[in-house]
Amino acid sequence: MRIFAISDLHLSVNNPKPMDIFGPTWQGYLDKIFSDWNAKVMDDDLVLLCGDFSWAMTLEQAMPDFQMLESLPGRKVLIRGNHDYWWKSISSLRNSLPKGFYAIQNDAIKFENVVLCGTRGWSVPERGNSLKEEDQKIYDREVIRLNLTLEAGSKIRQDGDYLICMMHYPPLNFTRDDNEMSELFKKFNVSAVVYGHLHGKNKLETQFNKDNIPYFLTSCDMVSNKLVQIL
Q1: Residue 33's domain is classified under what CATH number?
Q2: H helices within the chain, ranges in order?
Q3: Domain residues for 79?
Q4: What's the pTM value of the predicted model, to 2 decimals?
């Protein structure tokens, strides 16, 4: 079993929202992703989808987007992004997901020797600046949720298991300073952190290590619309 990741697919089967208005990287991006996916992934592999899966506003509207990926190989694991407005109740979502899809929300799930946990996250403070009051409240709440999902993962983790944390927002600022989230990754001996959310023309470093923990940025436009192999 191998582990791949890609995020921010921004699917929109029912209500087409062209992504190429954001630049040439988005032209025909889904064809490129699906081609790479089919070339790399086997049925027993895992594909981590770290948020902003669909532009849909309701779960019913999002179902065609799930069906678009249903025939692709691998087991697909999702967390919620800031644009996933269709994601309401985790129980109703899990009851509606097609075969081969799994959703994580502040809890954990295990596949063979890999434990996956995750939460959405939020903007983290940049060096020398503090968050606005409302952002600080959300950030503090996400730190609590991160602790909950890592605790859930640690309870089902056995010796030799990998513990991978999925997030949508990057858990570090641009200078990669320590914060409450990075301290939790160290506390729970996380094997890897995978996230998305970041876009733009400036090429960002998509893989780096901090505290001997590998971090992977997997926004599709940042990784040339190719799945990233984790660990």
Answers
A1: 3.60.21.10
A2: 29-40, 59-70, 90-96, 133-156, 180-187
A3: 3-230
A4: 0.95
